[in-house]
């Protein structure tokens, strides 16, 4: 199969039982996505898969032949950090850092969902443009857990990045 990861194309033979997370980490040495729970419950393995946030621990790699994967390590533009990465630094949206790559990728996906007008469970009016309120951001980021409890900084970072995109 062929997979593009952070702009680099890889041709690999894959056992059909291999998860995308294991392919990335063990075969391609892409260590930004982390193996947290291995059950799709913590979000530490989140990447952008063809532009949408995705849990790689639940995805069989062979299902994504030809896909484009962007990890937190592939978001920067040369020497410039992605606005979400910069916001995480400015607001201390991390402590131990284990969940941070998944949080960052999820935040990028959340901002894209908001820009595209996708509602969430807390969207009050489906006829209006969805605002990046704290309730919206908390709901959309709820699939990414932080064992250290850095949620105040994470929310502030996503809020800042949402404002920068307007």
TrEMBL record:
Keywords: 2Fe-2S, Iron, Iron-sulfur, Metal-binding, Oxidoreductase
GO cellular component entries: periplasmic space
One GO MF term attached to the UniProt entry: 2 iron, 2 sulfur cluster binding
InterPro entries referenced in this protein's UniProt entry, alphabetically: 2Fe-2S-bd, 2Fe-2S-bd_dom_sf, 2Fe-2S_ferredoxin-like_sf, 2Fe-2S_ferredoxin-type, 2Fe2S_fd_BS, Aldehyde_Oxdr_Iron-Sulfur, Beta-grasp_dom_sf
PROSITE patterns with a match to the protein in the record: 2FE2S_FER_1, 2FE2S_FER_2
Domain 2Fe-2S ferredoxin-type: 1-75
Pathway(s) the chain acts in: Alkaloid degradation; nicotine degradation
Any one Pfam family match given in the protein's UniProt record, by short name: Fer2
Name used for this protein in its record: 2Fe-2S iron-sulfur cluster binding domain-containing protein
Originating organism: Nocardioides anomalus
